[in-house]
Amino acid sequence: GIVDEARRHGMTIIGTTVGRRDADGTLRPLNDAELAEAEANLGGSIINIPLEAGFDMEPGPDGRSICDILKGVKSDGWDQPLFDDTFVTFVRNAGTRRFTANIARVAQELERLVPAGVNVVVTHAMAGGIPRARVLMPLLNRVFKGQGEKYLASAAFWETDLGKVCSASFDEVTADTFRYLLEATAGLRGRANVRYVAYGYHGCEVLIDGEYRWQTYTPYLQGWAKIRLEEHARAARAQGIAATVFNCPEIQTNSSALFLGVEISLYPLLTSLDREGGGQAAEEIKADCRRLLAPGATLEGLLARANAYLAAPLLKPFGDFAGWPLHSTKEEMELMLTASAELMAMGADPKEPVCARLSFAAFSAVGRLMLDASASGTEPVQWLNHDIIAKRLLAAA
To answer: What does pTM read for this prediction?
Structure first.
C-alpha cells in the first residue's frame, strides 16, 4: 500500500532484501536473476545486502542452532526444557551482530544514493519471527485454530522454552530491528529530512452495535513485541527523531490461514463507509462484496453475524485495552472460530472471500495515510481505526 502510494507521488523507491538461504544454511545476497525480478516487482532499486533478522539459524557454542535443536524434538516433547538462557543469549547476540553490521552497510549505501537536503520516508516493514522448525506448525495450529481436544491454551505454550524463544524472536525481529534501523541511519538524518514509519498492531476501533469500540484479535502472541516497537518509537521521538508506529486494522493476509478469526473485524468497515459519508466509493466496494457472496447470502446478514460475534458478552473481558495482549480461553476460541467459519461460508468461493476485498481497501488506505502523515505527524504512535480508514477511502474517490 505505501509503495503504491509512493509510486503515485512519483517518489524514488529504494528497497532492501532479507537475502536468501542456500541449502547449507548460508545467508547470501540475491543473485542476478533474483535481484532483477525483485527490482521489477518493486519498481525501484534494491540494496542487495541481506537484512534477514532473527537468530534461529545462528550457530551456538557447539555449532548447533535453535533450528538444529528443534529438528530433534518429538511431537510429545515440545513442552520439555530445550534451551538454557546462556545458549539463547549467545545466538541472539550473534544474530544482532550480523543484522546491525549489515544494516550499517545498507545505511552507508543510502547516504551515497540519497541527495543532500531531500525528503526521505524510511519504512520499517519487518515483522514476525517464528523459528523455522516443523515442530512449531502443528502446535501453532492448536494455539490459533484448536477447538475441543485440539485446543492448546496460548498461555500454556507461551510459558514453555519453545514459547519463550518465540517471544525473544518476536522481540528481535518485529521490534528491535526498528531500533537498529534508527541507530544505523543517524548519518542519513544529518544530510536529509528523514522520517520513519513502522507497521504496528494494538487492536482497532470498529463499529459494534452502532458505536466505535476498541476490539482486538486474541491470542495475538506478537502483541508484546508490538508494544516494544511502540516503545522504540517513543524513545526516538524523545530524541527528536520523527518516528511513528501506525497501529493498523486487522486484515486478511497470507498468514490468515493460521490466524483464523482475525478477519472478522474487517466486515464492519462496510458500515463505517456509510457512517462516514457513503457515496460512490462506498457503493462500489459494497457492490464488489455482494458479487462475492454465495446464493442466498446478503451483506446485511453478513454484517449482522459479524456484529453478533463482536458484541458477544463472552468477549467483554478481552476488550481490556490496558491489559493487552491477553491469552486465549477455550470458550473464546470456539466462539471466534465458529463465527469465522460461518462468515466465510457466506462467500461463494473460499479462495475469494469478502474479507479479501475489504483487506485490499484497508491496506490501500493505510498506505496513503502513513505516507501522508509521515510529512506532518508528531506522535510516536497512531491508531488507524475504521473511521479514519473509511474517511480516507471516501476521500480518494
So the answer is: 0.96
